[in-house]
Amino acid sequence: MSDLIIDDNAVEHIRKQIEKENAEAVRLFIGGGGCCERFEMTFVENALAGDVTYQQDGVKLHVDKALVANTSSIEIKYDEHRGLHINLLE
């Protein structure tokens, strides 16, 4: 299981987005395919089978099992000019 390190700015940004979308949580996964894989986040009500759920300061984040299995930690930071930055440490 990976550690989730999420800064306070990211927590607040995600919280606002969840409220705006009237959702329960956010799901983090890798989308796209081939040479164009990218991180994606979507608003969800429930985790998918195998997802790992993290909670921090009232924000619920479901992370795809493949991301969790292949990383030692996931870092999420937020910068108002650059948006969310997600870093995987293997």
Present the secondary structure layout:
Layout: E1 3-6, H1 8-21, E2 25-31, E3 38-44, E4 52-56, E5 59-63, H2 65-69, E6 73-79, E7 83-89
Parallel strand pairs: 1-6, 2-5
Antiparallel strand pairs: 2-3, 4-5, 6-7
What would you say this structure looks like, in words?
The structure is a single chain. The model has no long low-confidence stretch (mean pLDDT 90). It contains 2 helices and 7 strands; from the N terminus they run E-H-E-E-E-E-H-E-E. It is globular. A hairpin with a 3-residue loop joins strand 6 (73-79) and strand 7. It has one domain (3-89): HesB-like domain (Hypothetical Protein Aq_1857, Chain: A). It has helices at residues 8-21, 65-69; strands at 3-6, 25-31, 38-44, 52-56, 59-63, 73-79, 83-89. It has 90 residues and is an alpha/beta fold. 21% of the residues lie in helices and 47% in strands. Strands 3-2-5-4 form a 4-stranded mixed sheet.
CATH superfamily membership: HesB-like domain
- Proportion of residues in helical segments: 10-25%
CATH topology: Hypothetical Protein Aq_1857, Chain: A
**CATH architectural arrangement:** Sandwich
Shape: globular
SSE string = EHEEEEHEE
Indicate the CATH class.
Mainly Beta
Q: Could you name the ranges where pLDDT drops below 50 across 5 or more consecutive residues?
A: none
Structural class of the secondary elements?
alpha/beta
Count up the helices: 2
Radius of gyration, CA atoms, in whole angstroms: 13 Å
N→C terminal distance: 12 Å
> How many beta-strand elements?
7
